[in-house]
Each structure stands twice: as structure tokens, then as C-alpha cells.
Amino acid sequence: MAQTTERPAGPASDRPPVRAPRVHRAWFVAAVTFVTIIGAAAFASLPGLLIEPLHAEFDWSRGTIGFAVSVNLALYGLTAPFAAALMDRFGIRRVVAVALTIIAAGSILTVWMTAAWQLVLYWGVLVGLGSGSMALAFAATVTNRWFTARRGLVTGILTAAGASGQLVFLPLLSWLVEHHGWRPAAVTVALAALAVVPFVWLLLRDHPADVGLAPYGGAYAEKPAPVTGAARRAVTVLLKAARTGPFWLLAGTFAICGASTNGLVKTHFVPAAHDHGMPVTAAAGLLAVIGVFDVVGTIASGWFTDRFAARRLLAVYYALRGVSLLFLPMLLAPAVHPPMLFFIVFYGLDWVATVPPTIALCREHYGDDSAIVFGWVLASHQVGAAVVAFAGGVARDVFGSYDVVWYASGALCAAAALMSLVIRRPQTPLPL
């Protein structure tokens, strides 16, 4: 992690250059980003734990609760490209600090809700907007600005931060829901989001030039001027990217990724396991174990992305995920048994392993606008998640089980594997 590139003492080059520190500042920025994403991951851990308690207390249908979760997931994705542009305009620190505050407000307000529309407003709209503003586009922006070398590895590490947060918070939140109700769990989410705001504000820096450094593995460059018209730029980049085939293939495969992870497993695995007699705490514990292996799988995927063709990695990841989901309905039982543990390990290694190669493909095809393009690709991920979060709840209400959703998701993953192989690597990044 040592960096030997010399840097100017400041933006002007009239002072003598000094040698960069032995451990490059980029790694400290990555560490702060990792901790921030972990602290904010609490909000992503809660939706699957809320379905049964809210159904029992308010008699809301699972479809209604799933709709609130789907609004959350859709806004999470649709906000991301605008957030990437806002980071270019106002800086990473400001955007992320405000986003965390909005998440905390939305979560704490759910404590006093009495009607389903309030769940949609507080958890769906507020938490969705806040979480979307510091979604994976946050990790992509930090990686693009602070790293030239090791981008795949850093992307994998930052992506794994969400899984690490899931590992930290799921057992605690499930215990709170089981023994004290869902309200203390919502308060915990709010406090966790607020707790990382000082880290962001005091320790995060927007650009290497802010501290007179070159990106890790790259040459020194002046900090670009703030980009005005964030919303217009996000839409302009979308319109230009939409004229290219790779964008639609990436968006389509990532929509299936969201449908088969956040929309399906993260939202409905706990209630599905509970339908088969498994205690909520045991099912939540299995999701936490997925988080453990997700960390390993995503970091490994980042390492692979630096060395192998990204489209081939995606094809392998989606194919393996589809096979595992087809077997899941046969594995659900009142107690945890070895075949279920094998599924958890296998599926966990693949949970968000798709992110590093997807970001790499965005970077290869779209150059400097890749963070915003990835924001739109992420939007498709969350729209896919939102559709299945809602459809899964409706399927449970109509059919009395989730089996049809597991099988349909497995088939979609097979389609995503084929779509990934169609993506071709350009000779040079396409101009946007």
C-alpha cells in the first residue's frame, strides 16, 4: 500500500515537491468509506425482519408491507445516479452526511406510525432517498477519484462493507425484534446512521488534490471545478449511454441481480424460513452468515476483476446463483441442517460478487462518466429488487408459499448469464 509518487505541496507547483507518505492517504479514505457503509448498513438489514411483526400488529398484508419495501428499493436505485452527480457538484462529504441524516429521520419516524401510508412515506420514501444518495455510487466515486491502481480490489472491499454491516446488525436487530419488538430495532437503525456522520465530516476528503496527493498508483492532477447542473448531467449521461448496447445489457443483468438478492433473499428469506417453522433469530442468523461469505466472495471478485475478463466473471456468477436458488425450496426446514448451510455458503460467496466486474465494465465503456452510468445501472438493480420485493409478498398472499418466486428467480439468473456473455470489451472507452 506504499505510494512513492511525488506530489506538489499544494495546488500550485511553485513549492518543492515532497514525497508521499509511506501509506497512501487513499487507503485511509477507503477505510473511512468502509466504516461509513458498515454503519449505514443497518437500514438494509431491517426490512426482512419487519414483515411478520408489522403483519401481526397492524394486520397489513404482506403485499402492502412489500410495497413499502419496494418503494424503498426503487428510490434507492433511482436516486443513485443523481447522487453521483451531486457528489461532483457539492462534494462527497456533504452529500453523504445529509443522506445519513435523512435515513435516521425516516427510521425514527416509523416508531410513531399508525397507517400503512406512513410506512411507505417514512421507510419507503425517506430511507429510500437517503440510502440511494450513498449507495454503491458512493463507493464507485471514491474508487474512481482516489485509486488508479487496485481499483478492482478496492471496489470489492467497499462493496463487501455492506455485507459486513449486515453481519454486525442482523443478529442484534433480530434479537431486538424477537424480545423487544420492532420499534427498538428501528431506533437502533437511526442511531447507527447518525453515529457515522462525524466520521464522514471530519475524516473523509473529496479528492486527492485536497491534500496535495496523486491518486494511488496515478499521477497528480488538479481538483476539477464543481460540476453544475447535477440533475441535467445525470439525465444527459443516461440519454447518451442509452444509445449503446452495453448499457442495456449491464442494466438488464443488474436488474436480475437485484431481483435475486435484495428483492428476494434479503426481503423474503426470513419470512419464508419462518413459514417452514424456523425461528426468526435462526433465519436472521443464516442471513448474517451469508454476509460473512459475501465479504470473502466480493473481495475475491475484486481481485479476479483485476485479472480476468469481467463479462465472463459475470456469466459464471449469475449461472451459479441461479442453480443455488432452484435448490432452495427443497432446503427450507424447521431446523438448520448441513445442506442449508452449504446453500448459505455457496450463495453468500456470490451475493454481490457481481458488483466489481459490473463497475469495471462501466469504466471500460464509459470512462470519466462511469460513476454516473453505474448509478443508472444500479437504478435498474433496485427496480428489479423492488418488483420482486412486492411480487414476493403478493405471491405469498396468493399461493401460500414463496416457491414460485425462487424458481422464477433461478430462471432469470440463467438469462443474466447469457446476457453477460454478449457484452464486448471496447478498444477504447466510448465517448459520452
Show the helix and strand layout.
Elements: E1 6-7, E2 18-19, H1 25-40, H2 42-45, H3 47-58, H4 62-90, H5 92-109, H6 116-132, H7 136-146, H8 151-180, H9 182-195, H10 197-203, H11 230-241, H12 245-260, H13 262-275, H14 280-305, H15 310-327, H16 338-350, H17 355-366, H18 370-399, H19 403-422
Antiparallel strand pairs: 1-2
Helix pairs in contact: 1-7, 1-8, 1-10, 3-4, 3-13, 4-5, 4-6, 4-7, 4-11, 4-18, 5-6, 5-9, 5-10, 7-8, 7-18, 8-9, 8-14, 8-17, 12-13, 12-17, 12-18, 12-19, 13-14, 13-18, 14-16, 14-17, 15-16, 15-17, 15-19, 17-18
Structural class determined from secondary elements: mainly alpha
Uncertain segments: 2-18
**CATH class, please?**
Mainly Alpha
Q: What is the overall number of helices? A: 19
Integer count of domains: 1
In whole angstroms, the N-to-C terminal distance is 33 Å
Rg (C-alpha, Å):
21 Å
Determine the CATH superfamily.
MFS general substrate transporter like domains
Beta-strand residue fraction: under 5%
In the CATH classification, which architecture applies?
Up-down Bundle
Secondary structure tally: strands? 2
* Arithmetic mean of pLDDT: 82
Protein name: MFS transporter
Domain Major facilitator superfamily (MFS) profile: 28-428
Transmembrane segments: 26-51, 63-83, 95-115, 121-140, 152-173, 185-204, 247-265, 285-304, 316-335, 341-361, 373-392, 404-423
Keywords: Membrane, Transmembrane, Transmembrane helix
